[in-house]
Amino acid sequence: EFTTNRRCFEEDFKTQVQAKEWLELEEDAQKAYVMGLLDRLEVVSRERRLKVARAVLYLAQGTFGECDSEVDVLHWSRYNCFLLYQMGTFSAFLELLHMEIDNSQACSSALRKPAISIADSTELRVLLSVMYLLVENIRLERETDSCRWRTARETFRTELSFSMHNEEPFALLLFSMVTKFCSGLAPHFPIKKVLLLLWKVVMFTLGGFEHLQVLKIQKRAELGLPPLTEDSIQVVKSMRAASPPSYTLDLGESQLAPPPSKLRGRRGSRRQLLTKQDSLDIYNERDLFKTEEPATEEEEESAGDGERTLDGELDLLEQDPLVPPPPSQASLSAERVAFPKGLPWAPKVRDTDTLVGLPRPIHESVKTLKQVTRVGSQSSGIGTNQGKFDYQSPSYWLFYQIALLKILLAAAPTSKAKTDSINILADVLPEEMPITVLQSMKLGIDVNRHKEIIVKSISALLLLLLKHFRLNHIYQFEYVSQHLVFANCIPLILKFFNQNILSYITAKNSISVLDYPCCTIQDLPELTTESLEAGDNNQFCWRNLFSCINLLRLLNKLTKWKHSRTMMLVVFKSAPILKRALKVKQAMLQLYVLKLLKIQTKYLGRQWRKSNMKTMSAIYQKVRHRMNDDWAYGNDIDARPWDFQAEECTLRANIEAFNSRRYDKPQDSEFSPVDNCLQSVLGQRLDLPEDFHYSYELWLEREVFSQPICWEELLQNH
């Protein structure tokens, strides 16, 4: 398709500009040509319109036909994207996107086809690709950006954040595409591109994790709270992953180990044998936690029960584990590396009780305790940010998150295809299925890569939204979190990790010579089965590591300080699943695994803690201490999930009260009689927003036409 885009541009460019190339034009001439392109977008013919859209896409891709290096391609892609935006390209493509979304002929044609292929979404993919490149290039800030570019970035951010020209915000339009795809009304939508663009738009308009930290600091300052002393991401960067002894020691430990009496005086020499660990020492299959006592029969049985429980909950397919190759000797260098000593986190305490009647020494102790007490911004006062981050209506988010979880379930590497599941491969499967081994291998890599990107975008999107919701208003966060829990998000994530995570993170589902911008500059070598099997030179797939960390952080968000949800982790036998994830020697991933293990240790019993002392030690070393938390020695093995249902019900009542105050019209009385007369109800005047008549068709499409109605069931019930 890169070649097709280039050909469409060159054919159009030659008819408009004589004896010159794009890079040779002055800026005014480039603007004039772009204006002409946008005018030619308004033709009636779909075929001619697609050719012009491909020409615009070639500009956004960096006019690689005139470049000599990958750096040049990326430079001109960024330059062209700013130029295209300033000439109104995004607005023009937004109108075309609306037309394609409302194209009932394309939807009905896709529904009638027995198998949907990549050809059914050609127009949508071109439009979304242009919009993605515009968002991604303009979103990224650089010190060398001119004042004009900085102004354009802020204007674009505002345009994406608010309702412009009486239309819904762009993110909500993309969310509606997701729900329409999941409902089966538009199976040809290129869902991978939609989700990627949605994630980048949310990151651009609301801000990423670094911006969240800045917002957190600002909000605490406004509320008169003490400043944050730690940035979690920065603390984790200085942490060392828990790593096993070196590979050579593992091989000859039984033959070379001296007697224990001699080892006592040789700790210094033993330290010299420790090898320097990479940020991801993953090729060492042997686990630090494998040196613990063998698992008891009860634990092995519970692990099996947990897998069966998850299978019954989600009905996903297990994946056979793959053992990665051992590391080479060159990677086992014996360099010493220095890490900060002591515990990485400052201790905290969550709450204190009254001190009435206690002696003075206790008062002094509690005074010291309060100095490390963390007061959250939501505890000191709740204020909802108005403007660009209002979560519209609670009912919308319920549909959105269920749709995202359905796609995540279909994209999980352990999922199996079912007749009633959604088809997420419509924008990757070719029109003609492969007939050779080489074609089959290439398609298999494409399909796996396609699923990995979907998991990455959904996990990042959900985590980013939850963090922004929590900063915006605690009940918005709790509302979305509770519905994620009710939609089986917890067992879904656990099922995702119930695979060989080590193999997932070392997977090589990419073909480096076909990656952008490499493929646009170099002559493509002939692909062979051997080159595809060899993969690229990267030892790890950072995309998959990013997804795993996001899912673990999401699981932590859902279960933190929620006893009923912690008990769900226990009921689903998550401890063996999470322990296996500790084989990945990466500090951040291990931290969030250990956090999840810490909150459930008191429910796992004394025998589990006794058999997993290395894990308990790792929790002590790496997870923040809560001064009044009895995680290491408390016992509550008789607790059951229903013991904590009152907590969940109370939370739901508070959320509904908030939503009623925030979004519902005030009622005269809760005892007002219900009007059952159809004519009377239809005759009532309703106070609608001033701009409702502009977006009435969008509301009708989203709330009425897009919702499937089972008339037979309706008649049976009434």
Automatic annotation (TrEMBL):
Residues 294-304 have a biased composition (Acidic residues). GO terms for cellular component: cytosol. Residues 359-696 form the Far11/STRP C-terminal domain. Residues 246-270, 285-307 are annotated as: Disordered. Transmembrane segments: none annotated. Residues 1-279 form the Far11/STRP N-terminal domain. GO terms for biological process: cytoskeleton organization. PANTHER family: PROTEIN REQUIRED FOR HYPHAL ANASTOMOSIS HAM-2 (PTHR13239), STRIATIN-INTERACTING PROTEIN 2 (PTHR13239:SF6). Belongs to the STRIP family. This is Striatin interacting protein 2. It comes from Ursus maritimus. The gene is STRIP2.
